[in-house]
Write a structure and sequence with these properties.
single chain, alpha+beta, Ribosomal Protein S5, domain 2, six-stranded mixed β-sheet, 3 helices, 6 strands, 22% strand, elongated
């Protein structure tokens, strides 16, 4: 997490194989994900991204920052979840508001804490992670 003198903060979030990096700075409330305004996303994806924004708006009153989020890896849902995590973390770090952090935790803990579950590795000699070879006694 890097902080420059023009108050630009870089925060990351992960979900499964997706990684999102959010850059937050002073501005007028523009949120872009992979160079697209978040309002152009699918309906449910837009709602997932709006959750931390609505909570921040209720507590802070005014959204006075711009956030640019770049995602890579994973699938579409994983990237949205990673972007949501990075966005919430960036807003908390930018505003330094403990009240906002507490309300994020009360609403949904995964707004600030990453889900660390990962895909289980495949075992040699078997087809999948848990599946075992069938035995035939005939």
């Amino acid at each position: 997490m890097v902080e420059n003198k023009d108050k630009k903060i870089i925060v990351s979030g992960k979900r499964k194989r997706a990684v999102a990096r959010a850059t937050i700075k002073e501005g007028n409330g523009q949120i872009t994900i992979n160079n697209r305004n978040y309002k152009t996303l699918d309906f449910f994806d837009k709602l997932r991204i709006e959750e931390p924004l609505r909570i921040a708006h209720n507590i802070l009153g005014k959204i006075n920052f711009d956030v640019e989020i770049k995602t890579e890896g994973g699938g579409a849902r994983g990237q949205i979840e990673a972007a949501r995590l990075a966005l919430a973390r960036a807003i908390v770090k930018f505003t330094k508001s403990t009240e906002l952090e507490d309300s994020y935790f009360d609403y949904d803990r995964t707004l600030l804490v990453a889900d660390v579950r990962r895909k289980e590795s495949r075992k040699p000699g078997d087809s999948k992670a848990r599946a075992k070879r069938q035995k035939s006694y005939r």
